[in-house]
Structure formats: structure tokens, C-alpha cells
Amino acid sequence: MVHEIFRASVDWRAIRQEFPILGEEVHGQPLIYFDNAATSQKPRAVLDALRDYYEHDNANVQRGLHELSSRATEAYENARQGVADYLGAASADEIVFTRGTTESINLVAQAWGGKFIGAGDVILLTEMEHHSNLVPWQLLAERTGARLRFVPVREDGTLALEQLPALLTPEVKLFAFTHVSNSLGTINPVAELCRQARALGAITLVDAAQSAGHLPVDVQELGCDFLAFSGHKMCGPTGIGVLYGRAEILEKMPPWHGGGEMIVSVTLEKSTYKKAPHRFEAGTPNIAGAIGLAAAIEYLESIGRAAIFAHDSELASYAAEQLAELPGMRVLGPKNERGALVGFVMKGVHPHDLTTFADQQGLALRGGHHCNQPLMRKFGLPGTTRASFYFYNTITEIDRMMEILRAAVRFFS
């Protein structure tokens, strides 16, 4: 019933018309874009915001006293406040602009981890982590002598949380985990995981790359210490991302990159640094990216994240049900509520071959390990084919995907 209300309250067909690229043809076929977990498409509101900045306000921020610089600085800092409001952060000073989720996590691993992680400490992760939330911690462990632990993933794609008491011990200094799995669609109980970690004094980091644009995310309700996401997965430009960090933690962290704008004073021998967030934003930032991200956030909020989540969940559930009926098809991930994606494997067909077949029919899927090699290995797979959805996708498009996949079954058999 809730999904029916949300579906009736939003004109999804009209929204779809706001994305120019969805009118493209690929190999002579209408484009069906189901690769949103890799990057989303951009509405005219975002494209117009980028064009408007470059046509009217293009200047460097913070340093200039002239009018264009003042306007650019105001827009850039307004974008920071917009992100803070979007995440429910206590202050805009808790928002650091980065290039994306990957850089945000590396920033924490380098700046916070380099100061607070030492030999014998434990970094707790899960077996479903994207390489971006695994490799930086591997590098940190190699540098410091810390150890890694992992919460196992069950066959149904959920975390084996009954094992958490044996894994989340006082030696754990950091617990980093994804909100929504980019391969399985699993939605993890973030608030509960943060609560348990906080009870033991562990710092938490949430990878929200697959959730920030799809469902309501409030950092104070979640109780996390850090949260990272990328703008390009939520209708924003590429090359812009966010690290949220609690103010008291950011203030204890040393700078990561050195250069202009992050300093208070510089002598030949020594420098002093600005307070967060500016101490973490050396050099000229992605000004247009931040402005574009702010436009994307405003656009998403005009639709409503609860409505987007209901719409996306319905698409993902419908797709999973339809895929499960195909002969020789293995569908990964939970059978109950999932994020806006479905990973699947067709018996005897490599994901790359299936994705290439689909592309010839205008269907954009993604095939491979999805930067989840340890997870794929656990399931005994070289990779999967992934269909990932957003609010501009439709049930009709999923039906067309099924026609293409049924043709693939016939072709490859």
C-alpha cells in the first residue's frame, strides 16, 4: 500500500523526460540504461547549473576579492550547507568535498588511520565491501601492523551478524561497512552496527555510495562517525564526492594533502593549518562539481527520497522475481527488501558475453566482478551481470530486458 501511494504521488513519466540522454538510441535500439550503480544519468537541472556557473560565475574560490570570486565562493559554500542539510549533519563544517567515495575513504585511512591506528589494532570490515572500502585498509594495515577482520556473508547475501560479538571486540578501532552492497543489493542495518561499535568505543565509517541517492540517510540517526558518497551516482557530476565526519573527530585529524588554501600561515620551515573542513581541501577544488551536486540534491529532494526508495525497491524486486523464472539463472542477494539492483549469472555464459549481447539490443548492463573480487570468489563466480535501477527507469524497461535475456538463453544454448 505504501508503494502504491508513492507511485501515485509522483509523475514518473514526466520526470523521465527531464533526462535528455534517455532519448538516445544504441545500435539502432532505444536505450535502456540499467547501469545506475556505476553512474547515474543527469537531469537538465544539473546540466543547467553547471552551464550557468561556467557562463556567469566562473572564478576561483576563497582567494579572490572580485565579484566573480565572491559569487563562486558563495555558491561553493552554499553547496556544502546543502549537503549538510541533506545528510542531517550538525554543521556544514562536518562536510569535506572530495573526488568521490574512494578518495573520501582514503582520506580517513591516511589522515585518521595514520594517527590513530597502530600495531595490534583491529580494523573490522565485511566480506561484501567494494575494493574502495577494502584496499585502503589493507594498505593501512601493512603500514601500521594492524590486523583486518571480516564479518562473513551468508549464502543469501546478508551479513552473519550472529558472529559480530566474537568479531567486534575491544581491539577493534574502526568498523567500516557498506550501507547497500553494490553487487548483492543487501541493505545493512547501519544504525544497529554503529550502535554496537560505539558501545565498544570503535569509530565507524559507512560507505553510502549506493544509498545516498536512493533512500533517506541521516548521519545523526545512523550514529556514524564517517560517511562517504559520490555525486555521480545520484544525478550529480563526476569528480565530486563527500566525506562526512563528526566535528570532534575531524578536528583531531592532520591534513592529508598539502598545498594552497588549507593553510593559515606558511614559513620556509613550518605551516599551520585551517580548521576542518578546509584543512582537507588543498588546492583548487571541483567548484562546478560541488555546485552540480547541490543542484542534484535539490532535484532529488523535490521528488522525495522515500518515494525514490519505494520506486527503486519495486523495480528491483520485480526484476529479481522475473529473473528467477528464467532457466539456468542464478540470482544473488536477499529475497526480501533490497537496494536498487540485481546481480545474476546465466549458466554457461560469462557475464561479459551476456552484457555484450544485451548491449547490441540497446540494454546497458554491467558484467564483471564489480570491484568485489573477494565476494565473487566466496560465491565461486568470476563475476555477475548486474542490472541497477533508478527512479527514471520503468517496469516496461524491465519487461524488455527479460525479452532480451530470453533471447540470450536461446542464443547461448
Describe the structure.
The chain has 413 residues and is an alpha/beta fold. The chain has two domains: 2-35 and 305-412, Aspartate Aminotransferase, domain 1; 47-301, 3-Layer(aba) Sandwich (Aspartate Aminotransferase, domain 2). The chain contains 15 helices and 17 strands. β5, α6 and β6 (147-151) form a beta-alpha-beta unit. α5 runs parallel beside α6 and α12 runs parallel beside α15 (395-412).
Condensed summary:
The protein is of the alpha/beta class. It has helices at 2-9, 12-16, 44-57, 67-87, 101-116, 135-144, 164-167, 190-199, 219-222, 247-250, 287-303, 305-324, 351-359, 373-378, 395-412, and strands at 25-26, 29-30, 32-33, 95-98, 122-126, 147-151, 172-178, 203-207, 226-230, 241-245, 263-266, 271-273, 329-331, 341-346, 363-364, 366-368, 384-388.
The amount of beta strand, in percent, is 15-25%
Strands of the biggest beta sheet: in what spatial order? Answer: 4-10-9-8-7-5-6
How many extended strands? Answer: 17
CATH topology of the largest domain: Aspartate Aminotransferase, domain 2
Task: Look at the structure and give the CATH class of the largest domain.
Answer: Alpha Beta
Overall number of structural domains? 2
